[in-house]
Amino acid sequence: MTTPPTFRTALTDLTGVRHPIVQTGMGWVAGPRLVAATANAGALGLLASATMSYDELVRAIDEVKSRTDAPFGVNLRADAEDAEKRVDLLIAQRVKVASFALAPKEALIKKLKDAGLVVMPSVGAPRHAEKVAAWGADIVMVQGGEGGGHTGATPTTLLLPSVIDAVDIPVVAAGGFFDGRGLVAALSYGAAGIGMGTRFLLTSDSAVPRQVKEHYLTYGTDGTVVTPKADGMPHRLLRTEFVNGLESENTVTRLARTARRTAQFKRLSGVGWAQLLREGRAMKAGSERTWGQMVLAANTPMLLRAGLVEGDLSAGMLASGQVVGVIDDLPTCEELVDRIIAQAVARLEDVQGVTV
């Protein structure tokens, strides 16, 4: 049997995966089934823990381990009240990679590294990358403005090289990637791999309801909108009637809806009001958000759950990158990863044939 081609990079060396491709930690989407399927395909799957209680995370890690022997990671909220407890769990369970949506404290990075875990924070600017690199992070992931969910305004083609130039640790590029051409482009910039969210969401291994995934496939490249009306920060979402309604809501209506959704999330997660307030203060201290934006941020988990878990297209948000407009199928993770690698090899062969 012929060994399938692959690309060895700093990402594959550090994490032990076969291919330099990361499935990002999408809340309500990156559960055990998708993470294990990604890992079995040879890429790095990241379990999304921000929308899980601690006990749910314990069960999710156990389930991933029951489905695969390959390396995988867990995405953590660095500002969560029980972040230290979750870090201890990852260490005890010998999870390979600890990923963070926000920069973790220096002491937390050291603890993870001392235990042998690979630490990969996500950053949105060169100065953020410089900070976590100085604290000992192994890899950083950068997401350009094309990406789904919370995103910045700088496109990947500008953000990626600026971060690569700023640090001497490996950089994973996210935002706008979906095929082998993108992988080769990222590697040529100097990245160690690519991260993909929307492309992995739109696989048959994703637990998102099929009718929701088929709804995604109807959108073009102009089918998303970046709005702060959902939770006070720029958020790239599918342009649905519900999101259009958010854009036109007045403050009183939006805050009332926020209070209802926050109460729902409290019941589902088992988190008490005191803990929610403490975590809110921690988030406020670690960001530039106003208190009004912090109140809206509490709304996000339930609005995403309504769309991505319950399949309620009329009352839920659907995070999406702009790549939704160039995706037209729902392959398995294995089919997707194999296809990306084959495309990348073919693209390199074409480039090598260019004369100068």
SSE layout:
Blueprint: H1 10-15, E1 21-23, H2 32-40, E2 44-48, H3 54-67, E3 73-76, H4 83-92, E4 97-100, H5 106-114, E5 118-123, H6 126-134, E6 140-143, E7 149-150, H7 156-166, E8 171-174, H8 180-189, E9 193-196, H9 198-201, H10 210-216, E10 224-227, E11 235-238, H11 241-248, H12 251-269, H13 273-285, H14 291-297, H15 300-308, H16 333-352
Parallel strand pairs: 1-2, 1-9, 2-3, 3-4, 4-5, 5-6, 6-8, 8-9
Antiparallel strand pairs: 7-11, 10-11
Helix pairs in contact: 2-3, 6-7, 8-16, 12-15
Task: Please explain how this structure is put together.
It is built from 16 helices and eleven strands. It is an alpha/beta fold and 356 residues long. The protein has two domains: 226 residues, Alpha-Beta Barrel (TIM Barrel); 89 residues, no CATH class. The strands form two sheets. The chain has an eight-stranded parallel beta barrel with strand order 1-2-3-4-5-6-8-9, surrounded by six helices. β2, α3 and β3 form a beta-alpha-beta unit. α6 runs parallel beside α7 and α12 crosses α15. The longest helix has 20 residues. The radius of gyration is 19 Å and the shape is globular. The two termini are 37 Å apart. The model has no long low-confidence stretch (mean pLDDT 88).
